[in-house]
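name: query_chain
kind: protein
chains: 1
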Amino acid sequence: MTRITIAEIITALKGCVDPEIGLNIVDLGLIQGIRIDESNNVKVTLTMTSPMCPVTSVILADVQLRIEHLHDAGNVDIDLVWDPAWSPEMISDEARMSMNL
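structure:
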């Protein structure tokens, strides 16, 4: 079994775009943590821009599928958290420049 890396997971998650904002969830700052155990089981901790986000289920399903499709991925656990709350300051510098922020 080949070990999955955090870099591979981040690359996969950069394909997951928030359809309301048009930015990927990594650059948007929604990913708060990634852990991989010795069996390639992955736990992703993330938040949404708002507890009322209407596309939460779409984003969570996309995250799940993208990680499950990585070679040798084990179980995928997604932990949706609200603390710390998301804020625009969490957007990456690269995304800020593309958005002229």
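note: Strands lie at 31-36, 42-46, 76-80.
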